[in-house]
């Protein structure tokens, strides 16, 4: 049965930062708590890929997490607004997503894990934020507006879909399309195969060795971020590490894209994508041209790293 056509606003909803900033801040801390559960239970994977979440048809999931001979996963469901825990032996638990402090959410999640015989001890200090409050002491962040949490997830669904199409054009080393809870951004990263200069570190409340391991090799990385600080609106981004000479002056598309000297990356406001006649085309244009700028200026071996055909068209 054919489904009724959805409006562009339903597919690419508005997400003004000021309208959901309190929910955003609270959800950021909740995501860090769940993410740190995956972190402490998972073997270390290069570039911290073992800590990320993945977009699902209902929200964000950790994917299976090992616990002895069992596994479990945690999923933020932004349709029914529940955090669900599922185990490989058929047990389930959860925490409602509703207005509650970070401290209350932390306690409820740890209690649910303990009920499922999954006791976990995490480091309770948030990462990648200034002035962090330990999770079990954070009574400041307590907002949750389900309407905006749902909109955020719906944008991730679209970005995830387009990023995955972009990812298929590269046959070199490339990350999954995954969600980092440190900064609350969805990202995909391509690698040239060459090592990079030692990263300077300096990320707030993140050990320098983590950043240096993450950027051990040359990258061109892109993603979606809800915004904050100098960028008070949601945006798509693209950067290179190390940044090759001439990158800030590179010509990229679409016309709404620009280089931020504060963030040292190209930005494309989300609204420029949402309001365009073809959001997919505009976003892919941004991803492709910013990657080409990075790869060409850094002299990547593009002929060996990119795919020139779609295997589905081969007969």
List descriptors.
315 residues; six-stranded antiparallel sheet; single chain; 8 helices; 12 strands; alpha+beta; 2 domains; globular
Overview of this structure, please?
This protein is α+β, with helices and mostly antiparallel strands. The chain has two domains: 16-137; 146-305, no CATH class. It has helices at residues 8-11, 17-41, 102-115, 146-167, 208-214, 270-274, 279-297, 302-305, and strands at residues 54-55, 59-61, 65-67, 70-77, 82-87, 92-96, 178-180, 185-195, 217-225, 235-241, 258-260, 265-269. A hairpin with a 4-residue loop joins strand 4 (70-77) and strand 5. Helix 2 packs parallel to helix 3. The radius of gyration is 20 Å and the shape is globular.
Summarize the topology.
Blueprint: H1 8-11, H2 17-41, E1 54-55, E2 59-61, E3 65-67, E4 70-77, E5 82-87, E6 92-96, H3 102-115, H4 146-167, E7 178-180, E8 185-195, H5 208-214, E9 217-225, E10 235-241, E11 258-260, E12 265-269, H6 270-274, H7 279-297, H8 302-305
Antiparallel strand pairs: 1-2, 2-4, 3-4, 4-5, 5-6, 7-8, 8-9, 9-10, 10-12, 11-12
Helix pairs in contact: 2-3
